[in-house]
Amino acid sequence: MIHPTAIVHPGAVLGLGVDIGPFCLVGEHVIIGRNTKLLAYCVVNGHTTIGEDCTIHPYAAIGGPSQDKKAESREISFVSVGDRCVIREYVTINRATGEGESTTVGDDCWLLAYTHVSHNSRLGSGVTMSNLAQLAGHCVLEDNVTIGGQAGVHQFVRIGRLAMVGGATKLARDVPPFFLCDGSPAGIFGLNKIGLQRAGVSVQAHAELKDAYKILYRSNRNLSQALTVLVDKVETPEGRELVEFLSAESKRGILK
Fold first, then answer.
1. Beta-carbon neighbour count of residue 26 at 10 Å?
2. Phi, psi at residue 128, to the nearest 5°?
3. Average pLDDT of the chain?
4. Is the dihedral of CA 189, 192, 194, 196 positive or negative?
5. Residue 77 included in any domain
6. N or C: which end of the chain has fewer CB within 10 A?
């Protein structure tokens, strides 16, 4: 279904059951998967792929040019959005900076009104960004991350799986997986207990992560010293995932 007021370039590829609502604009290089709905006044352009069963609400703008001053006007870069995503009013997702680079959003994400996903950012599956949450360029949000309303995330920040960032948080450092982050300046305030319960994390892993939190944030150890202890201590998959995140290269450093 394509509303008569919508403008869809003949080069666009639309899957079966796609519904393009009133006054939408769909560009030449856009691919939209089966049963996805653009409700009204949506703009999808650039080299953008939208997955299946997504719902895009009025005034969302997906695939627009990078707002990075280093971006070249002639470079070809991409936006990719997974399946079953809900993209609410006035959401913006910019294409990447750099020839062949991508801005990606995984499956089952909820991007609520006025959220912004900047160039080269990568969102895993199950990510929720509440109203007015903003990501700068090159951010990485792993699976099932939750970002509270009006939170601002600095470029190159990583946020680990099942972490939660509270509303109005100013975040300039990496947040390890499974933890709860809040405040301005931001701090770590224990485990994301509700998120861990909903994800079915085992009692053993929960206890191990609680001990890891104490070693990282309630002892006098620096990060290197805490890692030395944790490497020999963790036994669960979640504990090893935490150690791997803390050991990985970071441009912003771990929030400590």
1. 26
2. -120, 125
3. 98
4. negative
5. yes
6. N
Q: What is the sign of the dihedral through the CA atoms of 173, 178, 183 and 188?
A: negative
Sign of the Cα torsion 214, 241, 146, 61 reads positive
Q: Is 256's pLDDT higher than 90?
A: no
pLDDT range class, residue 29, cuts 50, 70, 90? very high
Residue 134: CATH number of its domain: 2.160.10.10
Q: What is the 3-state secondary structure (H, E, C) of 195-227?
A: HHHHCCCCHHHHHHHHHHHHHHHCCCCCHHHHH
Report pLDDT digits (tens) over 1-12.
999 999 999 999
Q: Pick from 86, 117, 138: which residue ends a domain?
A: 138
Q: Which of 138, 154, 186 is the last residue of a domain?
A: 138
The model's pTM is 0.97
Q: 3-state class of 193 per DSSP? A: helix
- 190 φ, ψ (degrees, to nearest 5): 90, -165
- Rounded-to-integer distance, Cα 124 and Cα 106, Å: 5
What separation in angstroms does the CA of 210 have from each of 62, 160, 221, 242? 39, 16, 16, 12
What gap in Å lies between CA 240 and CA 233, rounded to an integer? Answer: 9
Structural domain containing residue 125: 7-138
Distance (Å, whole) CA 197 – CA 214 = 20
Contacts 24+ apart (CB under 8 A), 163-167: 163/192, 163/195, 164/192, 164/195, 167/130
